[in-house]
User: Fold these one by one.
Assistant:
Number 1:
Amino acid sequence: MARGNLLETAKNKYDPWAQSRTGSRNPPVRASTETRKYLIIFEKPVSSLTPIELSDKPGAAEYRASPAEGIVRSTARYLLRTEVHTFAFSVAANAILSFFPFLLLLMTVVRYVFHSQVMYSVVEALLRDSLPTGQEFVIRNLNALVGTHHRAQIFSLVMLMISSTGIFLPLEVALNRVWRFSNNRSYLGNQLMSLGLVFACGLLALLSVGLTAGNVAIVNTALHGYGIWYVQLVGFITMKMFSILTSIAIFFLIYWLLPNGKVPAQGVLPAAVIMGLLSEALKYTYIFALRRLNFAEVYGPFAISVSLMFWAFLSGMLLLTGAHLSARRILQNV
């Protein structure tokens, strides 16, 4: 009863229309803004008066709403998603389809355009160092195709155009989800982007081969044919240095250009550097593990294809890991 009287008194005090109904002769006056706020707080208090500001940048709300977790746990949660494995396997399958045509075109350009035996030897050395298994088998078949079957180059170009879309289409969808971009490119737009990235990768590979061959030729000329072991050592070190730099550049171009949205270049560069270095460490780890996997006992003549498929899958997972880490760091700071 006392609470009811208190509410009635407050209502008559701050409601001029109530005063006019009770017989007051004073004209009704509208309640000010401060009075209305007081009435709202008096009748229905809120638990917090701190304003909440949400960023209008894509992905900021999702990252801020998620509970804080460490970088290892966040990466593990991301890599355990079924969609991530789907994207990685799709990339791996199409990477195998495009790998052989890409190398065939690269070796054809080196032999018939540049006419450089040193560059051709560097490509073979790169294959022996980069492939985890079946190096001599791949090199022998590539040499046979480059030397005899000229129609294979045209078919390789067509297959490269088709299979490159199969690589970069799922990669674009995966990177758009990482960056929280809602729209994907059209099929034609993705095709043009894929061809551009393939062309850029080819130029980077040619540049790496050319720089390595140039250094080897300079050292060989300076020594006048002596010190073969020193020339081979310099060639190997130079080849490794330029191949790692090429890997970093390819990672950077994919992280920066492939998503259908604006991605800061300086934000993805550290991830590209780290993933380029980790890809080299992952390769030697995989080569060491292949001795214990015994794919030949299970898959027989298809052991090389299966080994390359698993290697491409692991590389795809590594690429998506770098994209997740760079997006996580940037989106948490917006």
Note: The radius of gyration is 32 Å.
Number 2:
Amino acid sequence: MPKSARDHSFLVLRDHGTTLKRARERVLLETRPRFIVIIMLAELEQLLGRDAKSLLEYHCKTIPREKLHLPGPDFIDRVYAQTDRPTSVLRSLAEIFSHGRLGGTGYLSILPVDQGIEHSAGASFAPNPEYFDPESIVRLAIEGGCNAVASTLGVLGAVSRRYAHRIPFLVKLNHNELLTYPNSFDQIYFAQVEQAWNMGAVAVGATIYYGSPESHHQIIETRKAFQRAHELGMATVLWCYLRNPAFKKDKDYHTSADLTGQANHLGVTIEADIIKQKQPTNNGGYLALEKFGKTHDLVYKQLTSDHPIDLTRYQVANCYMGRAGLINSGGEAGKDDFADAVKIAVINKRAGGTGLISGRKAFQRPMKEGVRLLNLIQDVYLDREITVA
């Protein structure tokens, strides 16, 4: 391989006669020759289907990209280092941001596997029983080139001495167990921050169900946990979800841009370093619910539109204009997982987001296919032609 190919990215342009004006076969090389990334943009456009042009060529007319703190190789120095985070937290963030195929880009690809509690082990692992074994979970994250693996105290603790030094651990502290009858929905702390620190984890995560009556104690408990994590030098990731039956009207407003945006804003208020949020599918949750909260007409007239990139950008804006990274969740597994994963990644990146945290789409299939899916997501963030809108 010529030296220029090892040290620099280069393009091979060729007309494939696709639906777009010019389909490109792109070869990308990271600065470290360990990883060689081959991206077939024609394949990417094929996966996006009829949405390809509207997503890849969209120009945002709401919140300008120039107003955002965008991901990049210098993100920790440019953004996190200006905060009150202890230097040991910066080191932990650097460990996450420098690992895996996306290491050094400012983007994140994280494998989360806490569904054994959240959705039951049977429902989660029956499609691929090898993931009952914690080692398979960590191996998937490593072979998939992820920045980190997120799971329960039990899963990560079972293999910590073998793997904690090989990939950053993110311990999820609280969970909604699904064995109470009738089913209840509350986040209960299964682990203490000190347990995560003792096993060598570099980050902790927690969920808050904003909009639910239980959110009051969840906010208090998680705020204390995140403060303690920062004192010990660990980064913090907040699963920033909505949960209330009243949010389901003519649409499911659990994924409305205005409500999820406000949830993000509450999440960064307790100094979550990274926000995990479902990608918005609609807007106007405040307007659909009578006598609920406060909003402004300009949220809908100027700061958002119906386009998914604009809706997701509003989520980024509520993360202090990107000062806290927004990672969108990959959603449940289905028949079009590869197409769905690419679409979510393109929307997140073009909106100014920081990456994806995708679990079920990856582990509910044979490991080789799961690795391929994770790599496909990462390829979107490595492709320099897919830019922030």
Note: The chain has two domains: 1-57, 63-382.
Number 3:
Amino acid sequence: MSSAAYPASVLASLEPAGDDRGLWVNNSAPKAMLEDERSHNEEAAEELLRRALLDDSSSVAVSLEVGGLPVSDAVTVIFHGRRDLGTLQTYIACGSRGAGTTVAASELLRVPCDLDLAEAEDREEAERLYLAQATALRDALVGADVVLDVWREPLGELAGAEVAVDHSLELPVSLPAHRLLPTALVATESQLLVTPVCGARTLAEGRPPMGIACAQQEVTRVYPLADDPERCVTDFLRAAADHARTLAERLEQQEASVERFLELNEGG
């Protein structure tokens, strides 16, 4: 697993026109690495915080690249702050988005796990909180993607031989929780979809609560991230079969009711 890097002090502004507005990634500062040794990134982190927290512009974004993922390959986290709106939100895009690129709004997955630096009394404390919270999110993404990779084999064995990786932001099914990654596994034969999900809370509380969502048409279930994938897939397929059987019985009963109603009217 390769280490994640901060392509440093990445400034961004919303494009001025069009419905598909996105974030423009500026090339203006050196890179800072997320490492255990604070001395390696102290100067770069200070510059990053200066840009992110004290810039006079109304819109600032800082990106965090997470690479070496077994299923997603690479994703880019974008922390986007708007002084005029008083918002600081987290987005995730597929792939490695370097400085000088534009990320369209249609490529951004909103993840409700936002930075919270309000408790910082000075810049040094803000730096410490920022690095801790960004690291927590990075670790959550890495862990979720590794678990998704573990699901690939049992999903193929139990729900269909072919398993595809889907990076679509818009899924054909509704999920009961927020998506954590713009990545899903899809058993193409049964159309069973599996993707990491999370609960909404600030990163000041640490890693977000995470799970694995299974969805197929009208049936959805969320399982603990550390649960056994084979057991989960078996449980979900049983639940989906029960739902299909119940639906078939309901339709049969409805058809019988309609038939009896029509017979009553014909007899009259």
Note: Residues 151-252 form one domain.
Number 4:
Amino acid sequence: MTPTSTQPSHKPDTGRGRANPLPGQGEHPLSRDVLSQDLVSQDLVIQDKGKEIAFFDRHAAADTYDVFEPESSARLIRSVVGLGRFGEGNRIADLGCGSGVFSGLLQQHGCRCTGLDISPKLIELARRKYPGIEFMEGDVEHLPFADASFDGVLLGGIVHHLPDPSRCAAEVHRVLRPGGRFVAFDPNRMNPFMYLYRDRSSPFYSQVGVTENERPILAHRTAATFRAAGFSVETEYQDNLRYRYIASSRMRWLLPVYNAIDSVLFAPQFMRAFRPFVLTIGEKS
């Protein structure tokens, strides 16, 4: 594997002027299959906040929220800082901050970070772990921040928890200053592992460790949502983020196998659209 295979590709996929997730091709069969399943979730247009809070409060109690190995978290945030053009002294909102790991890493890059999460217990945990960072409880669909108050926003694995992310996109647009950028990362429904294990339409779907609201995203749909909110949008893909934990004890023993396959199979450029994570990047004009 080349050294660049662990980083997002260098050619942004803007998605402008096309509906297909793969450039220059017709719609992929897997995309047709999973798109047809969206009819199942038509009634899930509002996120059940109570269930989200209860789910993540349980993670806080067990301190099992940080699923990536430390070097993978650091690699991801290096990508986020580069793609978001987050500079030293920039004020960054880490939305869906969980126990604060990414907030802490952003601070190491010189950012002035504010973390927000819907789970009060995760916020308590974050405050204990990172006492020098501001954390607050809140909802990404109703942000407690003034207009144009941030230079950048990180949406850390939160968009795929929203059946309709348009309200979140509008709020991110509101709190960013003109020229500010956001970066969101989420599991990719076009990745076979993410689809088979984490998508409700898969025959191998596991309900362990997920909420009923969440579902891996389709990159072009997420890009369209944020574009409709007023952003110019690009899409990148990330591979080789090594898991250290998943909730299912029956599947946990497979993590070394998954990590090894991911580090090789999705490294080539022609596999970029199938990498496990989508990074959506937007700039407010």
Note: Residues 70-84 form the longest helix (15 residues).
